[in-house]
Amino acid sequence: MNSLQNHAHMGKVMQATRVATAVMEPRRARIIIILLALCTALQMTSFGMIFPLFARKIGDFGDGVAVLATSVMAYSLAGVIAAPFMGSLADRFGRRPLILGSFAVYTAAFTGYYLAATSLVFIVIRGLAGALTAGLGPATMGLVADIAPEDERGRWIGIIGGGTSAGFIIGPVVGGLLYDKWGYGPPFMASIGMALITFLIAFFIIPETHTREERRRDILHQKRAARLAPETGTAVSFWSSLPHPLLAFGILLFINLSMIFAWFFIDPQLPFYVFDELGWSTAQLGAAISFYGWAALIGSLTLSQSSDRWGRKPILIIGLILHSAQYVGLMLTNVYWVIIAAFIIAGLGEALVNPALSAAYLDITPEEHRSRAMGIKGAVGSLGSLLAPALVVVIVGTVPPQTVFLISAALILATALLVFIALRLPGRIEAARDLTWEVSQERVMAAQSALHRVTVSAATARKLKSAT
């Protein structure tokens, strides 16, 4: 608040420069984020149990890499279309409905994967799951941004990432062991049951953090900004609601695109490569993914605050370089424990990149558009997971697996170079809302005039009362 003038009859007139909002008590905020991380861990464990079995199931249908890649494309295309829309819904209607809805859909989708009798049915179910769960990431990041202090965003985003990594520690190993001993039934039943438990836990413990009052305030702010745009010369559009600077936003999107493209480019090839050419069992593939998950979990719990302390850019560069290790390892060796070591290094890299990347998005995003921005991030990520398997379908059978791994490694390292050269992020200072309509000189003068009239009316009323 800034003092403008002193008036003998009005006292001190103050100009409002920001809107004060209630802040959640830190202990309660920490508990909510930890509980959400727990739900994420359970959900990813349930998915991890059946993830290594997708290639087995497609193979039993008589199909191979191309069909598995097509199922990934269906999931990703649906996510590309739905993610921005789902992010806007999370801003408009709250985080909780999107989170609960996504957990419910996962339960139904896992059931559908188990019951699917043909590759076509499997692909359709993956597409529906991609569309209906696209709001989970934007809503989750919006929840963290709602209640976590700005200078601790990387840390708490890392806690959520740790939940994701924890799921990949247990799920693939257990799922692989159950399949190797008893077939599809036990791992899928365990996965479906755990997904249902995750939904029930979230239903009872995850509150709404973007309250109705806050949503109404944001809507009113946007309406006022739109009404006053002709007077202020400020364009109110989709572009003006995006994070700024736009160049930084574009580079952050490219980081997200390249990381997901690199993984999904090898994803359809990897299980067939390790099963057919390296002779791994399903349990061995699950163990490799588990080691990656352990590294990502430990890194998320111990390194996620690195970008809060040392800055987003240097942590992004280091994390990307480390993350490329898994592709380099697959490309250069077929020794199981060397590949495991490469996966561990890559997991640590992801633990550095993901919190820094999400925190960088939130640093430059207006408060009222946080979930929308994360929805755009999710859509771009889905675009990467769409384009990569599409390219796999085109080149399958003509390009050896080592070349596929080389392309992914080169893409990640090139992205690190781009970040080093071009990424410029503003200093992380407390972001001031764009309240031009609230601090304009015309409104200040109107407020002064109104106060003056009230003061004069009150003085006149006192004189009349004393006269009578």
Structure, described:
- The relative contact order is 0.16.
- The longest helix is centred in the middle third of the chain and has 30 residues, at 153-182.
- Mean pLDDT is 82; it is low at 1-5, 17-22, 232-236 and 429-440.
- This protein has a two-stranded antiparallel ribbon.
- The chain has 20 helices and two strands.
- It is globular.
- By secondary structure, the chain is mainly alpha-helical.
- The chain has one domain (25-209, 245-422): Growth Hormone, Chain: A (Up-down Bundle), CATH 1.20.1250.
- It is 78% helix and 2% strand.
What is the compact description of this entry?
By secondary structure, the protein is an all-alpha fold. It has helices spanning 26-50, 53-60, 65-93, 95-115, 119-132, 136-147, 153-182, 185-205, 212-232, 246-266, 269-277, 282-303, 306-310, 312-323, 325-332, 336-363, 370-395, 401-422, 436-439, 441-467, and strands at residues 2-7, 11-15. The chain is globular, with a radius of gyration of 26 Å.
The whole-angstrom Rg is 26 Å
Count of helical segments?
20
- CATH level 1 name: Mainly Alpha
Using the coordinates shown, work out and report the CATH topology.
Growth Hormone, Chain: A
Characterize the quaternary organization of these chains.
single chain
Q: What can be said about the biggest beta sheet? A: 2 strands, antiparallel
Q: How many DSSP E strands?
A: 2
Work out the helicity level: over 70%
> Low-confidence parts lasting 5 or more residues at pLDDT below 50?
1-5, 17-22, 232-236, 429-440
Mean pLDDT equals 82
CATH homologous superfamily identity = MFS general substrate transporter like domains
Please indicate the percent range of residues in DSSP E strands (runs of 2 or more).
under 5%
Spatially, the strands of the biggest sheet line up as 1-2
| The number of domains | 1
Level-2 CATH architecture:
Up-down Bundle
